[in-house]
Write a structure and sequence with these properties.
This protein is of the alpha+beta class. The protein is built from 4 helices and 9 strands. It has helices at residues 18-21, 36-43, 91-102, 133-155, and strands spanning 10-14, 22-32, 47-48, 53-57, 60-64, 67-68, 85-88, 107-115, 121-130. The strands form 2 sheets. Strands 1-8-9-2-7-5-4 form a 7-stranded antiparallel beta sheet. The chain is globular and about 60 Å long.
Length: 156
């Protein structure tokens, strides 16, 4: 990951709910195939990956149901807001992801979409397993306890 002081590095969209709803086993940085109007729209920060997911279909990795707002200046040459977008990974990684989804019952969840240090749009996807309600409660309780512990340490 690039440092925060890098002028090109910028987080576009973050799926903060993913860590609450899933156990993230591992994560992977992938490229994404975009049109020009989509990149222009992302530069203005108008996107959402909260309801999206990744899927391996026909030997390719796809990002499904992600939202990138229409770029008004593109006119008729714009893009469809919720189209399927192809993700770029190596064959070895694609085979590993396909195995995780097919055999182990994992889910591919997008975590963060960002511009890297070279100004390219990247997506970090997590190989995740869904949490049950009790697990979610446990996560919330741990988070609350850690906050309370930090407050206590600050006071005395």
């Amino acid at each position: 990951m690039a440092t925060k002081s890098d002028p090109n590095y910028k987080i576009i969209a973050e799926n903060r709910r993913a860590r609450f709803d899933y156990f993230i086993e591992s994560d992977l940085e992938v490229g994404i195939v975009l049109t020009g109007s989509e990149v222009k729209s992302l530069r203005t920060g108008q996107s959402n990956i909260a309801e999206s997911y990744a899927s391996v279909e026909d030997g390719e990795l796809w990002l499904i149901n992600s939202y990138i707002a229409a770029y008004k200046q593109a006119g008729i040459f714009g893009h469809e807001e919720r189209r399927r977008r192809k993700l770029l990974v190596s064959r070895k990684e694609l085979a590993r992801l396909w195995q995780a989804v097919g055999r182990e019952g994992m889910t591919l969840v997008p975590l963060v979409m960002y511009f890297n240090d070279r100004g390219m749009v990247k997506l970090k996807i997590g190989v995740a397993k869904g949490k049950k309600v009790a697990d979610k409660r446990e996560t919330a309780a741990k988070r609350d306890w850690n906050r309370q512990k930090q407050r206590l340490l600050k006071q005395g």
